[in-house]
Specification:
This protein has 4 helices and 5 strands. It has helices spanning 31-50, 108-121, 139-151, 164-176, and strands at 78-83, 88-93, 104-107, 128-133, 157-159.
Amino acid sequence: MAEMDTSGGGGHKKGPGVKKGKKLSTRVDLTPMVDLGFLLITFFIFTTTMSQPTAMRLFLPKDADKPEDQNKAKESGVITLLLGKDNNVFYYEGQLASDGANFKSSNFKEIRTILIDKKRNTPEKDLVVIIKPSADCTYKNVVDVLDEMAINVLKKYALVDISEGEAALVKISDASGSAGAGASN
């Protein structure tokens, strides 16, 4: 509390019946100000820890000595997911056969089982999932597939542009409602 001298002291009446005013010090007590400072610091530290952005954790590849070795994967450990319209998911393992024999159809309910089977049958260091959204798929479908990667703890995956041949195959399969002759699931 601030204490100040409020006595008159103007030289009015002086005599035996008039008491002389006390001189008070002008000291300011800063204890409440320090308390307020600590409260503000505590408040700002607490709110900054609460406002941390929450995002999906990404596992980035380690640097390789040669750039051409950076993105190499075993063909037996690769599964490619192609996202079509109407929640259709098409996939193939390894490289796409020229006749499309290994091109299969699925949906978002069945894709988890397919990914779990692939994870179970492939060593973790060799497993890579390639996600290729088509022009007709929705943003929700892409996020759903990325959620599947997090749910199934698949650490190596890539979001890649779809090739023209794959896009045509997806478009034909979307139109026919299946993944082609002899290649359906």
